[in-house]
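Handout, section B. The chain below has 514 residues.
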Amino acid sequence: MSNATAVKQETAVPGKVPMDELVALCKRRGFIFQASEIYDGINGFWDYGPLGTALKNNLRDRWWQDMVIAPPIGPDGRPVQIVGVDSAIIQNPRAWEASGHVDTFSDPMVDCKKTKLRYRQDHLVAVIDERNNQIFAFYEGSLEDTPVLKKLKKMAGTDELSKLKTAPFTEIDVSAYTNVIGPDSDEKGTLTEPRQFNLMFESHAGPIKDEKNKVYLRPETAQGIFLNYKNIVDNMRVRVPFGIAQIGKAFRNEVTPRNFIFRSREFEQMEMEWFCHPDEAQKWRDFWVEARMDWWKSVGVSGDHLQLRDHDKDELSHYAKDGVGTVDIEYKFPFTWPGFGELEGIAHRCDYDLKQHEKHSGKKLEYFDDITKERYIPHVIEPASGLTRGVMTLLAEAYTPDETRPSKMFMKFKPSMAPIKAAILPLTNKDGLPDIAEKLYMAVRGKFMTQLDTKGNIGKRYARNDEIGTPFCITVDNDTLNDQTVTIRDRDTMTQERVALDKVAEYVSKAIED
């Protein structure tokens, strides 16, 4: 049992995003809604509203642009070669047997016999009260606003919290479970011993619902890439090293989906499999670690909120046991603060996947180098990130408190990522100002995402656009009638500049360029 960090009650921390306020903002302003909300929702599923969809699409399109259309410059000074695919969500179930998902894609879970709730064992932390021979189980991360904090204050005493120790729940011996109080219980001994829970969603293809027709919703997009590797090599004039990229939905029956869209049961991934010579795996792993870290900074994520973490040997995936290892790019999420959580992993998958599919399918997946005359199974470096987790990152990064504004905050998206680039606001709904505003809107709407906003006083419209992160508010006022200029307000500085009507499109387009 570890004598880790003493438990402390958290207070407001400068720079830490208030998670409840961010979630409320996402609903109020049309970023993200609970799926099936009018039916009381469904745990682990989320709907993206108009602004959330735009934000997600901006991030998705930028990834595709920078990975497939104009991929990075490689170590030799030339662009690397990456092609894209869009594979089916449901594949032959034998593919998931070959990949190891049917046998190994599982998490340890414990059930509470009193509350009937289920928890992932490796997502729980134990708070140990040795004086009273009690162990409190709570979700990893902050104690802030959780039932266990009230429980600890009541049972251990507020003044005694700092004397308690923590340990990963996986380190608690099963024989000590009789002394454990679960996250949502007030009694000892209600948690069961851990057992494995497969994360794949099952379905059936065809009219008969039997074992023969059982299929799975894909738990990752990577296998669709491996299944198309031979097609790409045979038909697309690619040479090792090269990459295959894919963006798409994946599904995992998470035991405890939580932390908003960070861990959900339906999500989107942005994955690329980089096929290289086995002797060059280390070089390319290091290349992609640097390239991907730089990319997240390029979309507006602060380097101070990012870190790299090498996986320990005991946490490596089954496909990476004998490789050069996996590196995670981690972000300081609101619910991990001041710690970090995984944003993207850059893994060396070795030659595991191709060898497994070669073995199970009976198809040769060797690569033949017609220059060196060498035959080999390529090794794979995999930069893989969650698109929806990336959206979570951009939302948290953009949230900026500012007591001087009516909204008390604003969303400081990088302009290229902002859902709405410009809002056109007639100062009043008279004197022909709405007509000029609409004409300007029609002139610029095809160049960047623009919104024509005519409802409410100008102060409330500024506040609304601050809350949704619009970089520029363009006001059509009475002076526009005389000099054909408008006022452009900068979201971040709130400074205003007069710009000619026929220069607005050029002004905004230049400002939102990366």
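Note. The mean pLDDT is 90. Compare this with the example in section A.
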